[in-house]
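Subject: sequence -> structure tokens, single chain

Hey, anyone have a minute? Need the predicted structure for the following. Not urgent.
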Amino acid sequence: MTHALSVIDHAENHTYHQPTFEETGLNDPIAHCDLIDAAHGYARAAQAADEAVEAARTSATTLVNSDIEAIEAINVEWEAKAVHYWGPRNEAGFTAEVKSRAKGDLDAFNQAAEMASLRYQQCRAASLRAELNAEQATHAVDAAQARLVEAASRLTARKAMTA
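Reply:
Had a minute. Here:
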């Protein structure tokens, strides 16, 4: 695969000029290809890292929503159990009964709370996995950047040696 530098001479009519190696001072096509390959690798790694970070953000939001749903389901279950075993509750000395949100079968509330807790744990695992993937992708970007800088340094050193 051959890589060539492209420069737009006239942006309005999109004419392209592809300089020769002599014009660019890049007399070593292998070094030139190494630099281009390193730049492409960096671009791919950066894009993958961006996608992984976005996935981690989305996963974190899903985890928070799942946590809220689990807490609410557990609270309804607790309230239903309390009403079932101890009767209706009164607030701060008032004798008027507080309307319970928990009307129904205790087993259904228990099952709903268990399912909400399970969903939370599933979301937690997915979130941890997404965070790990984002961290690994960030390390890959750092490595790709180091390869790009190394290729550019080698090219600069070769150019200085031939000058």
